[in-house]
Amino acid sequence: MTGVLLLLRMQAAVCQTKGTKVKLIIATIKPFKLEEVREALTGIGVRGMMVTEIKGFGSQSGHTEIYRGAEYAVNFVPKIKLEIVVAASMADQVVETITKTAQTGKIGDGKIFVLDVAQAVRVRTGETDADAI
Questions:
Q1: Element (H, E) at 65
Q2: Would 50 disulfide with which of 83, 88, 96, 122, CB 3.0-4.6 Å?
Q3: In this predicted model, what pLDDT tens digit does every residue of 58-87 receive, in sequence order?
Q4: Which residues fall within 8 angstroms of residue 24, CB to CB, at 6 or more apart?
Q5: pTM of this structure
Q6: How many whole angstroms separate alpha carbon 128 and alpha carbon 132?
Protein backbone atom coordinates (compact mmCIF):
# COMPACT_ATOMS: atom_id res chain seq x y z
CA MET A 1 0.00 0.00 0.00
CA THR A 2 2.80 2.44 0.79
CA GLY A 3 4.25 2.04 -2.73
CA VAL A 4 0.87 2.77 -4.32
CA LEU A 5 0.40 5.84 -2.14
CA LEU A 6 3.88 7.10 -3.06
CA LEU A 7 3.14 6.55 -6.76
CA LEU A 8 -0.12 8.50 -6.49
CA ARG A 9 1.64 11.36 -4.73
CA MET A 10 4.33 11.40 -7.43
CA GLN A 11 1.68 11.46 -10.16
CA ALA A 12 -0.10 14.33 -8.42
CA ALA A 13 3.17 16.26 -8.22
CA VAL A 14 3.78 15.70 -11.94
CA CYS A 15 0.27 16.97 -12.76
CA GLN A 16 0.82 20.06 -10.63
CA THR A 17 4.13 20.74 -12.38
CA LYS A 18 2.54 20.25 -15.81
CA GLY A 19 -0.27 22.62 -14.88
CA THR A 20 2.13 25.47 -14.33
CA LYS A 21 3.69 25.22 -17.81
CA VAL A 22 0.56 26.22 -19.70
CA LYS A 23 -2.13 28.79 -18.84
CA LEU A 24 -5.65 29.33 -20.14
CA ILE A 25 -6.63 32.97 -20.29
CA ILE A 26 -10.34 33.65 -20.54
CA ALA A 27 -11.27 37.24 -21.27
CA THR A 28 -14.55 39.00 -21.95
CA ILE A 29 -14.35 42.22 -23.93
CA LYS A 30 -16.63 44.62 -25.78
CA PRO A 31 -17.34 43.39 -29.34
CA PHE A 32 -15.94 46.49 -31.06
CA LYS A 33 -12.56 45.89 -29.39
CA LEU A 34 -12.04 42.39 -30.87
CA GLU A 35 -9.96 43.30 -33.91
CA GLU A 36 -7.75 45.71 -31.97
CA VAL A 37 -7.13 43.11 -29.25
CA ARG A 38 -6.43 40.40 -31.85
CA GLU A 39 -3.85 42.59 -33.58
CA ALA A 40 -2.15 43.47 -30.29
CA LEU A 41 -1.99 39.81 -29.21
CA THR A 42 -0.61 38.75 -32.59
CA GLY A 43 1.99 41.49 -32.18
CA ILE A 44 3.31 39.92 -28.96
CA GLY A 45 3.45 36.42 -30.43
CA VAL A 46 0.08 34.85 -29.63
CA ARG A 47 -0.48 32.33 -32.42
CA GLY A 48 -4.14 31.54 -31.93
CA MET A 49 -7.27 31.98 -29.86
CA MET A 50 -10.87 30.90 -29.72
CA VAL A 51 -13.53 33.60 -29.99
CA THR A 52 -17.16 33.22 -28.95
CA GLU A 53 -20.02 35.71 -29.08
CA ILE A 54 -21.69 35.69 -25.66
CA LYS A 55 -24.18 37.68 -23.60
CA GLY A 56 -23.72 38.53 -19.96
CA PHE A 57 -24.52 40.89 -17.16
CA GLY A 58 -22.62 42.34 -14.25
CA SER A 59 -21.93 45.90 -13.16
CA GLN A 60 -23.14 47.11 -16.54
CA SER A 61 -26.57 45.52 -15.83
CA GLY A 62 -28.22 46.15 -19.16
CA HIS A 63 -30.02 48.91 -20.95
CA THR A 64 -33.35 49.83 -22.50
CA GLU A 65 -34.11 49.86 -26.19
CA ILE A 66 -37.07 50.94 -28.24
CA TYR A 67 -38.51 48.55 -30.83
CA ARG A 68 -41.57 49.53 -32.88
CA GLY A 69 -42.40 52.26 -30.42
CA ALA A 70 -42.24 50.04 -27.34
CA GLU A 71 -39.49 50.38 -24.75
CA TYR A 72 -38.06 47.17 -23.31
CA ALA A 73 -35.19 46.18 -21.05
CA VAL A 74 -32.20 44.32 -22.41
CA ASN A 75 -30.78 42.48 -19.40
CA PHE A 76 -27.91 40.72 -21.14
CA VAL A 77 -25.22 42.72 -22.89
CA PRO A 78 -23.39 41.35 -25.97
CA LYS A 79 -19.74 40.50 -25.26
CA ILE A 80 -16.89 38.61 -26.86
CA LYS A 81 -15.21 35.77 -25.00
CA LEU A 82 -11.58 35.03 -25.83
CA GLU A 83 -9.90 31.77 -24.83
CA ILE A 84 -6.14 31.83 -25.23
CA VAL A 85 -3.72 29.07 -24.23
CA VAL A 86 -0.13 30.22 -23.75
CA ALA A 87 3.07 29.18 -22.03
CA ALA A 88 2.97 30.27 -18.38
CA SER A 89 5.91 32.60 -18.98
CA MET A 90 3.79 34.60 -21.44
CA ALA A 91 0.56 34.83 -19.39
CA ASP A 92 1.29 38.15 -17.67
CA GLN A 93 2.16 39.80 -20.98
CA VAL A 94 -1.08 38.54 -22.55
CA VAL A 95 -3.16 39.83 -19.63
CA GLU A 96 -1.42 43.21 -19.77
CA THR A 97 -1.94 43.46 -23.54
CA ILE A 98 -5.65 42.62 -23.31
CA THR A 99 -6.12 45.04 -20.42
CA LYS A 100 -4.43 47.94 -22.21
CA THR A 101 -6.08 47.28 -25.57
CA ALA A 102 -9.65 46.49 -24.44
CA GLN A 103 -9.91 49.25 -21.84
CA THR A 104 -12.27 52.15 -22.55
CA GLY A 105 -12.52 53.35 -18.95
CA LYS A 106 -16.26 52.68 -18.86
CA ILE A 107 -18.33 50.06 -17.07
CA GLY A 108 -18.48 46.81 -19.04
CA ASP A 109 -14.89 46.75 -20.33
CA GLY A 110 -14.72 43.08 -19.32
CA LYS A 111 -12.93 40.59 -17.12
CA ILE A 112 -9.85 38.37 -17.43
CA PHE A 113 -9.32 35.01 -15.72
CA VAL A 114 -6.07 33.01 -15.74
CA LEU A 115 -6.24 29.26 -15.08
CA ASP A 116 -3.68 26.47 -14.94
CA VAL A 117 -4.00 23.89 -17.71
CA ALA A 118 -3.34 20.32 -16.54
CA GLN A 119 -2.56 19.12 -20.05
CA ALA A 120 -2.66 20.38 -23.63
CA VAL A 121 -2.50 18.06 -26.65
CA ARG A 122 -2.25 18.93 -30.34
CA VAL A 123 -4.55 16.40 -31.99
CA ARG A 124 -2.71 16.29 -35.32
CA THR A 125 0.76 15.53 -33.93
CA GLY A 126 0.21 14.34 -30.37
CA GLU A 127 2.51 17.08 -29.05
CA THR A 128 1.74 18.03 -25.47
CA ASP A 129 1.78 21.03 -23.16
CA ALA A 130 3.82 24.03 -24.37
CA ASP A 131 4.73 22.17 -27.60
CA ALA A 132 1.01 21.79 -28.37
CA ILE A 133 0.35 25.50 -28.43
A1: strand 63-67
A2: 83
A3: 776 666 767 788 887 778 889 999 999 999
A4: 83, 84, 85, 114, 115, 116, 117
A5: 0.76
A6: 5
Q: Is residue 2 in a domain?
A: no
Question: Are the C-beta atoms of 99 and 112 separated by less than 8 Å?
Answer: yes
- Number of structural domains (the chain) is 1
Alpha helices in the chain (DSSP H): 2-19, 34-43, 91-102
Spatial CA neighbour of 49 closest among 62, 35, 63, 59? 35
Alpha carbons 49 and 42: distance in angstroms, whole number: 10
Question: Are residues 69 and 88 in contact, defined by beta-carbon separation less than 8 angstroms?
Answer: no
Task: Give the separation between CA 133 and CA 122, rounded to whole angstroms.
Answer: 7
Find the domain containing 127 and state its range: 20-132
Alpha-carbon distance 96 to 81, whole Å?
17
* Selection from 53-57, 88-92, 127-131 with the highest mean pLDDT: 88-92
